[in-house]
């Protein structure tokens, strides 16, 4: 009987990792594998196995796992240690309601401070999204587009909260696109939001954002109901 490959076998390590970069390399590698589904929900990540895989001591592994836990990608479970968090939980709809509040506030603060370079970058992300077919890259570009409109908000704590929630959505979006066999998403909402931001029409931009997030919330509810 053929055994299924272990999830960690999907992670490629290219040569020795410099000690100074170990934590960052481990965190990045595991984060990517969680986001694209190679490390599915419920996968236990043992520190010694990871240390052996990356050829490092357990200290940078422990630090990387703490960072991933802070990003809500891992949960610490008694007797199992670090476990890949559920893709989406029943609180996701409430989370989207909170996102609407946080991101609308960030957008209001950011729009007056956006310059031509910011708007050009946002437009560039849309252009890439319109031609991109890779699910992982679509999810990443979606996050970057939103942050390009929010990042001028003069409130670091607010931006940290917003980016945390966008990271969670990135993971779900990758899964959702893949499971539905979709190649790309329509960019109509993003185009409209960018146009309103460029016109400094804050109320219209916020309204469009709220409608955009409500569509995503409906998708979440459908997924949970299934």
From TrEMBL:
One of its GO terms (molecular function) is DNA binding. Gene3D superfamilies: GntR ligand-binding domain-like (1.20.120.530), Winged helix-like DNA-binding domain superfamily/Winged helix DNA-binding domain (1.10.10.10). Residues 20-87 form the HTH gntR-type domain. It comes from the Bacteria. The keyword Protein biosynthesis does not apply. Keywords: DNA-binding, Transcription, Transcription regulation. This is GntR family transcriptional regulator. It comes from Pseudomonas marvdashtae.
């Amino acid at each position: 009987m053929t055994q299924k490959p272990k999830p960690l076998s999907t992670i490629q390590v290219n040569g020795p990792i410099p000690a100074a970069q170990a934590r960052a390399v481990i965190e990045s590698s595991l984060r990517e594998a969680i986001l694209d589904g190679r490390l599915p929900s419920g996968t236990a990540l043992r520190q010694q196995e990871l240390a052996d895989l990356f050829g490092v001591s357990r200290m940078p592994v422990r630090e990387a796992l703490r960072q991933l836990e802070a990003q809500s990608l891992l949960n610490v479970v008694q007797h199992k240690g670090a476990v890949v968090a559920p893709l989406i939980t029943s609180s996701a709809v409430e989370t989207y309601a909170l996102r609407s509040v946080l991101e609308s506030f960030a957008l209001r603060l950011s729009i007056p401070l956006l310059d031509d370079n910011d708007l050009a970058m946002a437009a560039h992300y849309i252009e890439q999204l319109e031609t991109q077919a890779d699910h992982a890259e679509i999810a990443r570009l979606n996050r970057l587009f939103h942050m390009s409109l929010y990042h001028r908000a003069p409130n670091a704590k607010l931006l940290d909260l917003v980016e945390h929630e966008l990271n969670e959505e990135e993971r779900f979006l990758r899964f959702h696109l893949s499971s539905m066999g979709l190649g790309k998403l329509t960019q109509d909402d993003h185009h409209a939001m960018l146009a309103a931001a460029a016109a400094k029409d804050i109320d219209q931009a916020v309204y469009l954002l709220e409608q955009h997030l409500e569509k995503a919330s409906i998708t979440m509810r459908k997924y949970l109901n299934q």
